[in-house]
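User: quick one, fold this
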Amino acid sequence: MTFGLHRGDSPLLVSMPHIGTQIPADLHDAYSIRALSVEDTDWHLDLLYDFLDDIGASVIKPCYSRYVIDLNRPPDDAPMYPGASNTELCPTRFFTGDPLYKPGREPDLQERARRRQNYWAPYHQALATELERIRAQHGYALLWDAHSIRSELPWLFEGILPGLNIGTAGGTSADTSVADAVVAACAGTGQFSHVLNGRFKGGYITRHYGDPQSRIHAVQLEMCRFVYMREDAPFVFEPDLARAVQPQLRNMICHAMAACQKLYER
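Assistant:
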């Protein structure tokens, strides 16, 4: 199995497409030694989001690293952010811009197609099927796409990111009331800096599955690592930091769920 899916009983599906850390043994020799430490993983999101069972969420998580294939990129490998540095469907660079592979060992067209079929397609088939199940049961669905990243990565963006980066694909993947509810939950405490549709507006998952007209609302949260862990190796989870942000994170999701429910009570 290339992913795990837990089915809950609420209208919420949480996707964690970059939490996987495995690289198949037969691919190890192609990567640089540094790549095998999978430094650009969205570390410890399962610990950070440990309240999801309590709110009845469905959760989908891959086993394999984004270095094998990036589940949040389109199957045609079109850039998510034209004009900026982008990583590919089968990434060839770290977030620092350095090469992931030994010289001449990058995946060719055939290998990229194989990975898309073996890793990308099953995840997205399951994600789409689960969203349809939730919508059929509840009349609507909320997709929360969970991510984390280092706050400073000059190859990808200038300066330092806000702690919480909310994305609704520029307002197209979720109703305005849903986005407003998430932002209000952030602003209510003022504890963490936040932005709506800043540098990270949502990747393929948010943009492709978010369809308010079809009663599916998608929100991406790109959270800076410093909010809950050490940003650099050994990438340690910091429980004291996490406990400070978890109530707000839960509140953001619950506000989004309440906004969705309100839409369909009219």
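User: anything notable?
Assistant: The beta strands are 3-6, 12-15, 58-62, 141-149, 164-167, 194-196, 216-224.
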